[in-house]
Each structure stands twice: as C-alpha cells, then as structure tokens.
Amino acid sequence: MIERYTLPEMGELWTETHKLKTWLQVEIAACEAQAELGYIPAEAVAEIKAKANFDPQRVLEIEKEVKHDVIAFLTNVNEYVGDVGRYIHVGMTSSDVLDTALALQLVASLEIIMSQLETLIQAVRQKAQEHRNTIMIGRSHGIHAEPITFGFKLAGWLAELLRHRDRLCELQKRIAVGKISGAVGTYANVDPQIEAIACQKLGLEPDTASTQIISRDRHAEFVQVLALVAASIERFAVEIRNLQRTDVLEVEEFFSKGQKGSSAMPHKRNPIRSERLTGMARVIRGNAIAALENVALWHERDISHSSVERMILPDSCTLLHFMLVETTDLVKNLLVYPENMKRNMNLYGGVVFSQRVMLTLVEKGMLREDAYALVQSCAHTAWNQPNGDFHALIASDPKVKAQLSEAEIESCFDPQHQLKNLDQIYQRLNI
Fold first, then answer.
1. Alpha helices, DSSP H, located in 176-216
2. How far apart, in whole angstroms, are the C-alpha atoms of residue 181 and residue 179?
3. CA distance linking residue 253 with residue 268, whole number of Å
4. Whole-angstrom Cα distance, residue 193 to residue 422?
5. Which long-range contacts (CB under 8 A, 24 or more apart) does 382-388 make?
6. Which domain holds residue 235?
7. Which contiguous run of DSSP H or E holds residue 72?
C-alpha cells in the first residue's frame, strides 16, 4: 500500500504541485503492480521510488514545447530517475493517469467537505435544541400561517443536512474509481490485474467498463450533489435574509464591533453573509450544468471535458467548502429575537389562531362552512384595520359566544396546541 501523505487544505489540494503529486502516485502504484506480477524488476521500482520527483516549473517549460501535459510530466520525472524511467507508464495512456489521479483529488475533497458538513450539522443541532421552545409564526406564501418554534424550523434544516451527509457518503463510493486499461480501455497492452492492484494500493475501485476515460456521468453526479448541498445552504440563507428584514427582525446575522452596513446610511445592518452564500450557490449550480454537458463525448474519448473540469471541479469543491465554513459560523453566532417573534405572531390580535377557533366551533356542532365564514369575516376585519384585534372580535361575536365559553375561547389562542406533537420530530433527529 502506498503511504498516504497528510491531507492538505482544500486550496492546496487543487494546486498544480499537488495535482502532479497525485500523477506520480498513480505512476508508482502502476509500477509496483507491474513488479508484483513480474513484468518489471522489483529493484527498478525501488530505484524509481527513491529517485522519482518533478519540478512544476520544468513541467510547464517542457509542455510549452510538446503541447502535452502528461508527456511533459513524464519527461521531467525521467530527468530525475534516469534509465529506469523506461519502466514508467508501460502500456498506459494519459487518461489512466489523469482520471485516476483526479479521483484521488475528488475523494480527498469530499473528505474535507464531509468533515466541515459534520461541523455544520452539530452547530444546527445545538441551535435547534437551544430554541426548541422559542415560539414564532410559521409562514406560507410569505404570509402568517400558524405557530411553530424556531427550533422546529432548524430541525428541518438539520434533516436536510443529514440527507446530504448520506448523499456524500454514497457519492464518495461512486467517484472513488480509477482506470489503468490503456488506449480505448481494452487492456491490449496492460494486464487488468495491474489496474486491480494499483487501484487497491490507491484506495480506489477499478472502473467497471471504462473507455479511454472514466465516463463523465460520475463527475456530473459529483458536481450535482455539491450543487444540491449549496442549494440547501441557499435555502437557509434566504430564510435568514427574510427573517432579518426590518419589518420582521426575528433573527439577525451577528454584527461585529466596527462593522459598517452602508457607506451612505449609518443605521444599516445588512445580511451580507447570507446574500453572499445565495450568490455562491448560483455559481455551483451553473457548474453542474457544465458537468452535465461533459457527459456526451465523441466515441471512446475526446478532451472537450478537460478544459471545463479544470475550472468547475476545483471551483465547486473550494466554493462549497467555503460556504459550509461560512454557514457554520453564521449559525453559531446567529442573533435570535424571541420577543419580536412573539410580537409578530400576535399581530392583528392573533389571527393566526383562526383554524383553531373554526375547528372548535365545528366540534361544538356548527357546520364547517358556517364556522369558516364567521371566523374569516372576523379575521379579515382585524387584518384590514391598523389596530385590528381578531381575539376581541371573536370573543364579542354573539354566534361564537353562543357556542363557546370564555375559557374555551382563550384555549383557542394557546399556541401549545399547535406545538404538542413536535417532540416526535425532535426525537427522530435526536435533538
């Protein structure tokens, strides 16, 4: 088994130097497999491992002349290893190195992303527990609906992130594949066992049926899953932005000492991090479209996908990791205003309790249509007045008073009724 180097930071993982390290790792794994099967001398592999190196600047120098990145790399490696270099890359094609090494980079990127996702999961779980009983209004179509808790809202975020954790685990299995099958993938000049042994050394599985490349449906799925995680982060960010609006102000991004919100308006405290996250999600979604365009290549291979992937794969991995870091910090330091939540829930005298009033009247024997019309009339009257009071209108309505006692009316405005079954959801999520 080849010794794994220490996992770098995400930015370092996609540098030219690190990329060439993975290329060399693949070439050495293939040489070791060749030696194990008796195709090349074991002492030659030992010498290759001892001497093999590269200089990124020298590789670029050579590439300017030969116009081929892998040939430039191999030429530079041979400058270090000398005569035994003839045993490197035997029976292989460039994509054997490129695609197998890319798999190593993608797997390593997922490890970093999944680690940060786990940190975000714990931050959301903790915040959901903290606000398990913080009552607020739930909204549909942007309009007040019925009471929920802020913890319940966060529980939905948590469930979504847990699904992403499962998706990323599955994705890691499907992207962790290599190929050392030679030109057009027929193993004409390389024993399939070399691929099997080399991939095992690299911690990969051999691709089931590669052509000259690993089919790009795998890479398209990779970017689509990253885009899906980014879309969820955008959902959370949009929610924070809406809840931070001046006329709502139920939560707010942490605003540090010395921070400024506007060059013109000193009072401004803008949700800039949430807005930034929203924009970044758009970039990764765009990359997912480009990844899908890469699936349809000519015959057994072309390189139209290569230039695209040099941009979208490093950018998507780096960007999503940054988004996860930002979101984690945003959640941990989120300012929550329970009093504003209570104020908003009771606007217009608690019109959000209309369904409970209607159902209680129905339970007492009133026809549902009649109960609906009566309650809707009171609600709309309250809604259209500056100081509208739905509770007062209901409590003073003769038809309501004929059916319900004062205590029964009061119980209709108790938000605990809407929250009585939320514990089941918290239990499912271990909150």
1. 192-202
2. 6
3. 12
4. 56
5. 382/348, 382/349, 382/351, 383/348, 383/351, 385/348, 388/348, 388/349, 388/351
6. 95-338
7. helix 69-81
Number of independent structural domains in the chain: 3
Residues 129, 243 share a domain? yes
Q: What is the pLDDT of residues 229-286, one digit of tens each?
A: 999 999 999 999 999 999 999 999 987 676 766 566 777 788 889 999 999 999 999 9
What does the alpha-carbon distance between residue 325 and residue 304 come to, in Å, rounded to a whole number? 33
> At CA 77, angle to CA 73 and CA 83, rounded to 5?
135
181 is catalytic: no
DSSP H helices in 261-367:
272-293, 304-332, 338-345, 354-363
The DSSP output letter for 351 is G
Last residue of a domain, one of 288, 308, 338: 338
Please identify which of the residues 140, 141, 256, 263 carries the catalytic annotation.
141
Catalytic residue check, 262: yes
Which of 115, 262, 304, 396 is labelled catalytic?
A: 262
Shared-domain flag, residues 326 and 379 = no
Nearest to 205 by CA among 98, 107, 292, 300: 107
For residue 78, give both structure tokens: 């041979």
Tens of pLDDT, residue by residue over 6-42, are 456 899 999 999 999 999 999 999 999 999 999 999 9
Are residues 396 and 278 both part of a single domain? no
Task: Say what the pTM is.
Answer: 0.92
